[in-house]
Write a structure and sequence with these properties.
By secondary structure, the protein is an alpha+beta fold. Among the domains are: 78 residues, Beta-Lactamase, CATH 3.30.450; 100 residues, Beta-Lactamase (2-Layer Sandwich); 150 residues, Alpha-Beta Plaits, CATH 3.30.70. It is built from 14 helices and 23 strands. Strands 13-12-11-16-15-14 form a six-stranded antiparallel β-sheet, with helices on both faces. Strands 1, 2, 3, 4 and 5 form a five-stranded antiparallel β-sheet that branches. The chain has a five-stranded antiparallel β-sheet with strand order 7-6-10-9-8. Strand 22, helix 14 and strand 23 form a beta-alpha-beta unit. Helix 1 packs antiparallel against helix 5 and helix 5 runs antiparallel to helix 6. It starts with a helix and ends in an 18-residue tail after the last strand. Keywords: Coiled coil, Membrane, Transmembrane, Transmembrane helix. It catalyses: 2 GTP = 3',3'-c-di-GMP + 2 diphosphate. It is an enzyme of class 2 (transferase).
Length: 638
């Protein structure tokens, strides 16, 4: 019993250590996921800050140029023009907020902007308005202004640039922030000026950032529920250097901790299974210890009674709960206690031949039981123990555990007398078999979960429509191949493939026809490309091919072969044949390419050159990536 108590304490201590380790590990894994998300959003916030500062700088340069024109003595002429890369409009307001030149701005917007700028229009600095919905253009806008004529009181007016607040959307579309990630441009009171998100709304709403944004701080973290769409997000913010603005990048907490939740579920399931197994084994062990303890007590009691009187010993046999037997191997007889004699259906009350008892054993167990008993009789084992099936009085078989020990031996070690017990262990045996079946079932469930995990990994790396690799997987492979090619000084080519007039196909044959075209082109390219090549759908009707160990000439040949095969492709949809052609841009790795993105950009430039030059053709990219390669006497369009 002392061993049983010690085993129980060790098992419980092991369970405590197991769950303590699980909880500590989960806490560390959660903090690691949060730290990784903050590092990622912090880096993106720095990039967004530089992008916005550059954009505001360009706007201010335009405003200063127009203001200089207005303040010259020469009468200004011509329309107010802005660079093509800026999304917005340029207007002039007089001192009363009226438009001084013909524009498409509605009067309410003009007065709103004038009211925002009038309080500080005497200062020679860049002024920024609140966001406003322009009913004429049906767009949200933010005004950037410079006052002109500061010498007069009030100034003559303002030069205003109206920036479309969707300006962050293009930057947002280049990032992978999940379905509910956001980019924000706010003033220092937390009011949203522009927002990049899957659902772009919420301009002008306060983000309650003031407690996080202090005059001494230039950056920080955001962690909480958004008042715009009530989604809990985690992210970072950065203050702009020269303007009272800040930018923020946030990811949904559900996306940040998605991997952690999956890991936690698997770990808790494993720990729970292990705990249940340990507890079950402990229960079985304690049950076995208890049974052995009672059996040993019964044997000790029998020895004491035998030393004093045969009658007392027989009385103990009658009151014993388990079956007690007394065997004399020399004369081949055995005596059973009355209770088990009745259960076994044995006649009389006297000793019986051993062969009579052997006939009660199951035929499949008889030889093994006899061999174990003979080994103990000849002093080859310290005690006899056997678990086997035995026929009862009702004709049915039950599992029993028989154990005994020789209490008398002759000079040669041969047992003259063996006393033992027989215990019905049918329930314990069936419980053991049930445990084995459950263990097999758990193993099968674990195999199915592993197969599901492999399938999820495959789906995360491929395009669900075509089965080709997706953009993320392609870029990961491109970075690895570019690093390998630069390290080993091996050639590497990249193709950009775009289906011509794909919108016309969707409009004519519906999206079902367009999907059929995408699948057919994917299957065709998979047949034509090599095993080491990587083919991926980058989005829409645009595909990319990575060609390791492939120079410019061979890359051009492969691109032409793909173009010709697509041109000849016969795609039937609803009894009609859909004509398909493709334009391709080819770029070969050069010293100017530092990574996969640079190589992809050059191939993309070549692709759009193929589009502009008539489609259904191949164009090679230059080594610098600015214009398609056009050496003397060579037409880049194949």
């Amino acid at each position: 019993m002392r061993v049983a108590h010690l085993t129980s304490l060790v098992t419980l201590a092991g369970l405590l250590l197991l769950w303590t380790g699980v909880l500590v590990h989960l806490d560390g894994a959660r903090e690691q996921a949060r730290a990784q998300a903050l590092t990622s959003t912090s880096n993106l916030t720095i990039a967004l800050r530089e992008h916005v500062q550059h954009l505001i700088k360009e706007i201010d340069n335009v405003l200063l140029l127009v203001r200089t024109r207005q303040m010259t003595t020469v009468e200004p002429s011509g329309p107010l023009l802005i660079p093509e890369n800026l999304q917005g409009r340029l207007i002039l307001l007089d001192a009363r907020g009226r438009q001084t030149e013909a524009t498409t701005l509605d009067a309410d917007t003009a007065q709103f902007l004038h009211a925002d700028f009038s309080a500080a229009s005497g200062e020679d600095r860049l002024l920024i308005s609140r966001p406003h919905f322009d009913t004429r253009s049906a767009r949200w806008v933010v005004g950037f202004a410079r006052a002109f004529g500061q010498d007069s009181k009030p100034p003559k007016g303002e030069v205003v640039f109206l920036l479309d607040t969707a300006v962050l959307q293009s930057f947002y579309d280049q990032l992978d922030l999940g379905h509910t990630g956001t980019l924000l441009l706010c003033d220092t009171q937390g009011r949203v000026l522009a927002r990049g998100a899957h659902e772009n709304y919420g301009r002008g709403l306060g983000m309650v950032l003031a407690p996080l944004v202090t005059p001494q701080g230039d950056s920080g973290t955001l962690d909480g529920r958004s008042p715009i769409d009530a989604i809990e997000r985690l992210g970072s913010w950065q203050r702009l250097e020269a303007q009272p603005l800040l930018v923020a990048v946030q990811r949904a907490r559900s996306d940040v901790f998605a991997g952690y939740f999956q890991h936690r579920q698997r770990l808790l399931l494993t720990a729970a299974t292990a705990s249940a197994g340990l507890l079950l084994m402990l229960v079985l062990f304690l049950h076995s210890c208890r049974r052995e303890w009672h059996e040993l007590l019964a044997l000790e009691h029998a020895r004491n009674e035998l030393a004093t009187a045969e009658e007392r010993w027989r009385l103990a046999l009658e009151n014993a709960g388990d079956g007690v037997w007394d065997c004399r191997p020399g004369n081949g007889t055995v005596f059973y206690s009355p209770e088990w004699r009745e259960r076994l259906g044995l006649p009389g009350t006297e000793s019986l031949p051993i062969d009579t008892v052997l006939e009660l054993l199951h035929a499949d167990d008889r030889d093994a039981v006899k061999a174990r008993f003979d080994a103990h009789v000849h002093d080859e084992t310290p005690r006899f123990r056997s678990e086997h099936r035995m026929r009862m009085a009702d004709g049915g078989y039950r599992w029993v555990l028989s154990r005994g020990v020789a209490v008398e031996r002759d000079a040669t070690g041969y047992a003259l007398r063996v006393i033992g017990t027989t215990t019905d262990v049918t329930e314990a045996h069936e419980l053991h078999q049930q445990l084995e079946r459950q263990t097999v079932g758990l193993r099968q469930i674990n195999n199915r979960l592993a197969a599901k995990e492999r399938e999820l990994t495959r789906l995360a790396a491929t395009d669900p429509l075509t089965g080709a690799y997706n953009r993320r997987t392609f870029m990961q492979r491109a970075e690895l191949e570019v690093a390998r090619a630069l390290r080993r000084k091996m050639p590497l080519s990249l193709l950009m493939l775009d289906l011509d007039h794909f919108k016309r196909i969707n409009d004519t044959w519906t999206h079902a026809g367009g999907d059929a075209v995408l699948k057919a082109v994917t299957q065709l390219c998979a047949r034509l490309l090599r095993n080491q090549d990587t083919f991926a759908r980058m989005g829409g009707e645009e595909f990319a091919v990575l060609l390791p160990d492939t120079g410019a000439f061979e890359g051009r040949s492969i691109a032409e072969r793909l173009r010709a095969a697509i041109h000849e492709l016969q795609i039937t949809h609803e009894a009609e044949t859909i004509p398909v052609t493709a334009s391709l841009g080819v770029a070969t790795l050069s010293a100017y390419d530092s990574d996969g993105e640079a190589l992809l950009r050059r191939a993309d430039v070549a692709l759009y050159a193929a589009k502009r030059s008539g489609r259904d053709r191949v164009v090679m990219a230059s080594s610098e990536g600015h214009t398609p390669l056009q050496p003397d006497g060579f037409d880049p369009v194949i």
